[in-house]
Amino acid sequence: MNVLVINAGSSSLKYQLMNPETGDVSAKGLCERIYIDGRLTHKVGDKKVVKDIPMPSHSEAISAVLDILVDPVDGVIKSVDEIDAVGHRVLHGGMEFSDSCIVNDDVIAAIKKCIPLGPLHNPANLMGIEACQAVMPKTPQVAVFDTAFHMTMPPKAYRYAIPTEYYENDDIRRYGFHGTSHKYVAKRTAELVGKKEFKMINCHLGNGSSLCAIKDGKCQDTTMGLSPLAGVPMGTRSGDIDACVVQFICNKYGMSVDECLNMLNKKSGVLALSGVSSDFRDLEAGEANGDENCILALNKFFYEVAKYIGAYAAALNGVDVITFTAGVGENGPDTRAAICSYLEFMGVKLDPEANNCRGKERLISAPDSKVQVWVVPTNEELMIAQDTAELVNAAK
Ligand code: ADP
Predict the structure, then answer these.
(1) FRET partner for 123 with CA separation of 20 to 30 A, picked from 93, 191, 257, 341?
(2) What mean pLDDT comes out for the span 86-104?
(3) 359 lines ligand 1 (CB under 6 A)
């Protein structure tokens, strides 16, 4: 089976053509500068092709992807009919979606209903879906939501302690994000430890970071909230912050709430604390040179991640497995060691040699550690392709 996985952003569109059973990727790439001019970068194995192609909308971007996939020189399939289904990443499923689903008119209407909750991403995700429907009307489309995995949270985790009307009338609550990644890592970890019933805390640490408390494969709590701004400090996002900070800054500097939120989303996090970069490699380089601001940024990040692991160990009343994933989680042995050093009180003990790895699926805790610690590289595209294949096969 061939599944085309699409992640449409406001001016970009990433794609992968993959086999959901084996995880083999036959081609992948990126359309950039949609609405501006248009550039396609297409990769098959080690071969990379870059083409400037006019992309006045997402429609032309999708057409460019399909054209290159069937191209006699750079393509990997003979006809678009060889694409059995398309899986779309959709950011916000609100309270409408607790699982992935095959796209129909009702699904499109429900994704539109969630636009106020995901104003930047949902319109772009919809454009990706509608563009595919237009150019490949017979091919089933599946929507995979970043929020869906978190819909098993109990009310005590998802309700905010604010007047009920905002929940009842406006759906204001914790939703959580990175759900496709947390779901993939939870599923893979169950295979690795050979159990279905266990308590785990997954740390998705990348440019955006979130943690997820998972019991028997189901999300119990997660650090992001109504939006991805909440939780631990990230590359450029502040993470949790007292709402009065917004009031103070808006009043003192005559900023609008939107401007202040833009600052909290794009100019904060480890970028702000370090004054150097949002990239953890740059922070580690700064730390090695004794840069105090880089050291503070890293220490703040380690501290807040460890604090949430402690909180989730209490929320779950124990923890069997801690997993690290995404750019920093997979590639940062020093980050993992610094975070785990806070957790010695609960019997977490790393094996320094095993932990000295990057991007590999591996048990990194010592044999006598009370909690297993694993690095499990995430694969959101594979999760999207697997959900897509499962739904499309079931509907046959
Ligand atoms: P995104 O949230 O954009 O998907 P990623 O999961 O790709 O982010 O993570 C990006 C982060 O991973 C960057 O901050 C980068 O510094 C970090 N990273 C990637 N490789 C390494 C590495 N070898 N060592 C430390 N950090 C790394």
Answers:
(1) 257
(2) 97
(3) no
